[in-house]
Amino acid sequence: MKHTLATLLELELASGMTAPHRPRDLDDVIQLIRANGLPRTYAERLDPYVRAKFEELWDAAQYRDEE
Hints:
mainly alpha; 3 helices; globular
């Protein structure tokens, strides 16, 4: 089985959405969005179950902590 960025994102999103004790998975998605410069439209490549959460986290990823 070939693992892709989309597959990794889907797994991280689904885990973060269904396991409240795993918030780090959702932060991982934010970091992946930033590190890969993903556009908001990347959500179209993902399973419909996780698309809205991806878009929510994409919005969050646009904010940077001030250093």
